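User: Run a structure prediction on this.
Assistant: Running it now.
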Amino acid sequence: MTEMNTTENSEKKSLNFIEQIVEKDLKEGKNGGKVQTRFPPEPNGYLHIGHAKAICLDFGIAQKYGGVCNLRFDDTNPTKEDMEYVEAIKEDIKWLGFQWGNEFYASDYFQQLWDFAIRLIKEGKAYVDEQTSEEIAAQKGTPTQPGVESPYRNRPVEESLELFQKMNSGEIEEGKMVLRAKIDMANPNMHFRDPIIYRVVKTPHHRTGDKWKAYPMYDFAHGQSDYFEGVTHSLCTLEFVVHRPLYDLFVDWVKDGKDLDDNRPHQYEFNKLNLNYTLMSKRNLLILVKEGLVNGWDDPRMPTLCGFRRRGYSPESIRNFINKIGYTTYDALNDFALLESAVREDLNTRATRVSAVINPVRLVLTNYPEGKVELMEATNNPEDPDSPTHTIEFSRELWMEREDFMEDAPKKYFRMTPGQEVRLKNAYIVKCTGCRKDENGNVVEVYAEYDPNTKSGMPEANRKVKGTLHWVSCGHCLKAEVRLYDRLWKVENPRDEMAAIREAKNCGPLEAMKEMINPDSLKVLTECYVEKFLSDAKPLDYLQFQRIGYFNVDPDSTPEHLVFNRTVSLKDTWSKKNK
């Protein structure tokens, strides 16, 4: 095998199966050499991390092969949809780093879909059914037993046409009538058993108002919208595999005898993004928001993209994570720790290093001159050789982390303890001499002496000590609130656990959720101190509090009241804690 062939085979192996399909189609000249995808969210909630996987595929395929990805809102259910969600979805897509070619709505095609439905009735391929939803469901049969035909299946075409008009005029109440496609009640694919394609909804639509009362179902609107727009590769998640034959049938019907050859939309399915310790159903997320179990859709504990953004996740880290897990044709449960690892990996390259003390105790350098203040140089990001530096004030009295002092320490304790030397980062080596306690035995001050010859950069600064601690100057720092976020759920698989609780206790989803919520998912620390350098930090700036974790500035933050969110710890402590 030649070197060139080896390289080509290696590149082929690195392609996911969707990319392989697209490249094969392009090589065969299908669709006129065009690649067109679409991202079709329903505007009934905020996008979550699961949608990010679809976004990266839909937009990524179009980008990679010189095509276009359109944004199409699947707004066929006005009872749940709102312009608030439309704007939020657009913001999240842009934040992830993508831009759509055109902005469409399923409601753009309401008239075309209506006309198509009228044609199907006239062709004897659709009929109005007056049965209840329970009666229709009971007649569906099972995958191994054929269904029972509706008593309205063969009603006259003129009658169905008249009733269908009444469904849209407002004369028919919700649930009283539906329009069904006449296909095959014995088909082993249950979706072929005369599916409902229109129902009555009297809620005003956020775009069309009261113009329509009869609305198309998803299966009826999806493929036709793809066809109207010229979509070539319609990418869906695996639950739509069984819908694909119906998708193809409706496309065949809507083309009305036209020979599409290879120029028709094709549906392909990929696996959903499933994460442990995560619940991603929009319905359940809405309960969390409405019942006040979280502080809105952008609560940093939520799996929504706006929640991850507020928490401090970078769009690059989410894209890198999705690239790592890839796309397959089988479902899998991914470890949330893998997402956090991708966040750490990305933020390590971009986060500005700063000093912050979140559980402070006062450190007094007893031999340091009173009133003296030195400016120490701190590198913004040691991972970047071109990173600038900033200065941090050093003085006699400093704040240090309470956890960094132990009066009676074990042998391998390398932090602050009487008689032991440590380095204060970017400053001096100091030796602890003792502490002062209050009447309850709590340490209120730690004492140490500094060695003036060990300032960072001096020859003696290279003297080896095993511990390095961070600090801020008591007289030159800013008070701050720090919010420590952790996983919202204390169970690994909240979806299955919720189902089990509901069945065992015969309760609703809210009661089950309350049992599963991690009580330590949010801790608010109000007595924290950060260096003055952060006075100009902007919301969503990426920061590393040295030795603590990655943080960002919360949108609630003001110059008078700084607020920081923990994005992720420096290391994966959750896995160890929950073993």
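The first strand starts at residue 36 and ends at 39.
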